[in-house]
Amino acid sequence: LPVQSAITYPRPGAAVPPGELTVKGYAWSGGGRAVVRVDVSLDGGRSWRVARLLGERPVPGRAWAWVLWELEAAVA
Questions:
Q1: Which residues neighbour 16 within 8 Å (Cβ) at sequence distance 6 or greater?
Q2: Which domain holds residue 68?
Q3: What CATH number did the domain enclosing 17 receive?
Q4: Reading across the β-sheet that carries 67-75, which strands appear in turn?
Q5: What is the dihedral of CA 43, 30, 9, 51, to 10 degrees?
Q6: Segment (H or E) for 59
Q7: Number of neighbours of residue 56 by Cβ within 10 angstroms
Q8: pLDDT value at residue 50
Q9: CA–CA separation, 43 and 38 (whole Å)
Q10: Could you read off the pLDDT of 40-64 as tens digits, one per residue?
Q11: CA atoms of 45 and 75, how far apart (whole Å)
């Protein structure tokens, strides 16, 4: 499976004040393949940024679970 991902913070439709914001989420893959990168777009796909993966790195061929990620972003 291709990597699947979801944003968990902020919630959809949430009012976000100007300044720095930490966008958080999780991602998963299939077939024992690890998630090695999560790209996040905050402008409808016009540009993309690489999120930071959290936690331990999986053992190759044994990556059956999800991984948490986060991205620091400036909100205008």
A1: 10, 75
A2: 3-75
A3: 2.60.40.650
A4: 4-9, 19-28, 67-75, 52-53
A5: -60
A6: none
A7: 7
A8: 96
A9: 16
A10: 998 889 999 999 999 876 666 666 6
A11: 16
| pLDDT over 90 at 18, yes or no | yes
Tally of structural domains, the chain: 1
Q: Which of 38, 45, 34, 35 is nearest to 23 (CA)?
A: 38
Tokens 């913070």 map to which residue? 9
| CA contacts within 13 A on the Cβ side of 40 | 21
Number of C-beta neighbours around residue 29 at 10 A: 20
Reported as a pLDDT band with limits 50, 70 and 90, residue 73 is very high
Q: Quick check: pTM over 0.85?
A: no
